[in-house]
Amino acid sequence: MTTTAPSIGREIAATLAAIGYDDIPADVVEIVKLFTLDTLGVIGGARRAPGMTELLSALTEWETAGKATLLLNGRTANPATAALANGAAAHSLDFDDQHDQARIHAFCVILPAVLAAIEAKRDVSGREAITALAVGVEVFCRIGLACHNSLGKGWHPTTSFGSISAAAACAKVFGLDAEKTLHAMALAFVQLSGTTQFIADGALAKRVGPGFAARSGLLAAQMAKHGVTGPYRYLDGKAGLFELYERGEAIPELLTEGLGESWRIRELSMKPYPCCRCTHTVIQLALDVRAEGIAPDDIESGVIEIGKVNRQIVGSRFDQSHPNPVVHAQFNAAYAFAAALVDGKVDISTFTPDRIRAEDVSFASIFDSADAADMEPTAVPPARIRLQLKSGRSVELTRWTMKGAPNDPMSLEETVAKFRACLRWGMDAGDANLQGLEDAVMSLDALVDASLIIHLFRGCEQERRAA
Predict the structure, then answer these.
(1) DSSP string, 106-161
(2) Average pLDDT, stretch 28-57?
(3) Which alpha helices (DSSP H) does 191-231 contain, by range?
(4) Eight-class DSSP state of 303
């Protein structure tokens, strides 16, 4: 028997179920479209990423044709499989968006889950898709903010919180009422997983985590639609998220205050560099050092100072012989600094095995890292570099803001350029297909059928195969 006792989860579900397209501010609609474009580009760029071919082989070995599209090869599969594969692709380059304070990557989970739900349900309008995306991402940001030190405990918040948030998004696609939305999110909680150990070990599992979350959220919504129930106190129960996973270190009111009225999705950051966000200010510092005329051969030693949690994630000493060089480099501040200093840029090619193994970046191993005493332990943007030059001169540079954040956003032109560069890198997409997909996404609110963007993406993939 379903209880009607109060719970935070029930309050959230009631609010989410009541949100319609007309409740979403115009600027939030534009944010959703822009980050959808960005994420589709990142997915396309992932076709050549380590682990993607192997993942698709593993997933399709047991599958025949299904309802939903595997974006990297155009095959169809069970919607849950598609959500997993496309979620992993969206995260494989570490080029996907982030809410810096919440420490979550949002669209890499929510967009693949919603696309799979759209193909499962059929006849979903662009406005319905936007509503589902906005709701899912908003929940995601708020859970990350409420559980503000989850990463510091060893959880990977994108994987763990993503499942609950994807369930909320898919519940909107399926048109679930408040009670079934509650159970969808609760069933996703039952599947909750995620660990930062794959970062420490440089494992390809890092990129699969968001796929697990997208799949779990979609499955949870599907089960709730058919009447399966979950623990309604999944957030505030004795064995709920706040107590069991966060050890009582949570701010529950951040989940509910202003929900449906004020939108934390506005705080998302877009990534200008395809690596862990914790390294991005370090990259900017390297470009500052380069602008001062300092070359790698001028440096005797160096220390990278960042916040404590950032250092836990990206502060290890660079190991050029690491058995999994790509993941290791994506999560290594010293390598990011060295590559930016040598090349004057950081892009997808920076994180290929040959580039990581190259002699001219081997000096990255001379850098140490340290917790910055004057930076908040959980702060993402700030970083400092201290260099001792062979000439005897000391150099110290500090940055407190990060490119791509709301206070220093990427322009529309930069976003479109990134989208196009990614799809050219991964899919060899031509200008006509790129323009068609871009136009459809940026007019998503006018589409009668949101699955058009999947069809147009497949056009890019088919062009690659035909070439």
Answers:
(1) -HHHHHHHHHHHHHHH----HHHHHHHHHHHHHHHHHHHHHTTTTGGGT--HHHHH
(2) 96
(3) 197-200, 205-225
(4) E
Which two three-digit tokens encode residue 146? 């409420």
> Cα–Cα distances in Å, from 63 out to 67, 70, 462?
11, 12, 21
All domains in the chain, ordered by first residue: 8-267 (1.10.4100.10), 277-399 (3.30.1330.120)
Whether the per-residue pLDDT at 1 is higher than 50: the answer is: no
User: How far is Cα 254 from Cα 378, in angstroms, rounded to an integer?
Assistant: 17
Cβ of 100: how many Cβ atoms within 10 Å?
21
Q: Crossing angle for the helix pair 79-91 and 52-60, nearest 10 degrees?
A: 170
Q: What is the rounded CA–CA span in Å between residue 49 and residue 63? A: 22
pLDDT bucket at 199, cuts 50 / 70 / 90: confident
pLDDT in tens, 377-428: 989 999 999 999 999 999 999 999 999 999 999 999 999 999 999 999 999 9
pLDDT of residue 5: 62
Confidence tier at 124 by pLDDT (50, 70, 90): very high
Nearest to 129 by CA among 453, 435, 415: 453
- Asked whether 418 and 38 are in contact (CB, 8 A), the reply is yes
Lay out the sheet containing 367-371: strands in order across: 367-371, 299-306, 383-389, 394-399
Please report, for residues 209, 218, 285, the alpha-carbon distance to residue 125 in angstroms, rounded to integers and kept in the order given.
Answer: 29, 18, 44
Kindly give the interhelix angle for 205-225 and 157-174, rounded to the nearest 10 degrees. 30
The span from the CA of 380 to the CA of 407, in Å, is 14
Nearest to 44 by CA among 72, 74, 2: 72
Find out whether 326 and 203 touch, Cβ atoms under 8 Å: no
Rounded to 10°, the helix 333-343/280-291 angle is 30
Question: Who wins on pLDDT, 466 or 425?
Answer: 425
For residue 244, give the DSSP letter: I
- 68 pLDDT exceeds 60? yes
Q: Where is 57: in which H helix or E strand?
A: helix 52-60
| CB proximity list for 462: less than 8 A, separation 6 or greater | 74
Q: Which residue, 106, 72, 4, is CA-closest to 454? A: 72
Contacts of 283 (CB under 8 A, 6+ apart): 273, 275, 336, 337, 340, 346
φ/ψ of residue 386, rounded to 5? -120, 120
Q: How sure is the predictor about 467, in pLDDT bands with cuts at 50, 70 and 90?
A: low
Residue 88 is encoded by which pair of tokens?
């992993």
β partners of residue 30: none
What the block records as the tokens of 30 is 């534009």
